[in-house]
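Researcher: We're teaching a course module on how sequence relates to structure. For the next exercise, students receive a sequence and then see the predicted structure as tokens, so they can try to spot secondary structure elements on their own. Here is the exercise chain.
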Amino acid sequence: MTDEKIMDMYRNRQEEAVRETAMKYGAYCFRVADAILKNREDSEECVNDTWLRAWNAIPPAYPDCLCMFLAKITRNLSFNRYRRDRAVKRGGGEIELVLEELGECVSDGSDMEGQILARELGRTITDFVYGLSLREGNIFVRRYFFAERVEEIALRYGLKENHVSVILSRTRKALRAYLEKEGYVCEQGRTI
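Model: And here is the predicted structure for the students to work with:
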């Protein structure tokens, strides 16, 4: 079934929309969740929660790309689940590493001003990623949106792990410079 037909079902509040969405995007959303959570049951739960969030969001939301809309919901639910489950014990997992790497570019935004600017910052980072070469953009998104391991990215693109790490390092430095230019990072390295 096409995304347009599924979206029409959501707009008309037909419960079949959820079934069709699960059939078409269930495996994809599970891969997104499992890349973060590394736990089948938790990943399945996040995917099921994704369908509820999509049902509650459409309408009023009318996503241009249903696949990415669902991936974003799944990713956010998975990160929230990950943080909740690991609030007491902090390990050396992949998510901590991803967040630490991005911490070089952006602070955690825990203050109110940071929360207000988060949406605009997200658009700025999206513009930055679209300005990258296709390969660099894909590597950046795979690492920092989907939280893929460097080894997995290297295998996917036929590169050495060190080469992927160098690409990511250079891209983070370019992102930091871009954010400084756009006025999001001051000289002390804090997000404004």
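Model: If you want an answer key for the exercise: The radius of gyration is 18 Å. Confidence is low (pLDDT under 50) at residues 107-116, 188-192.
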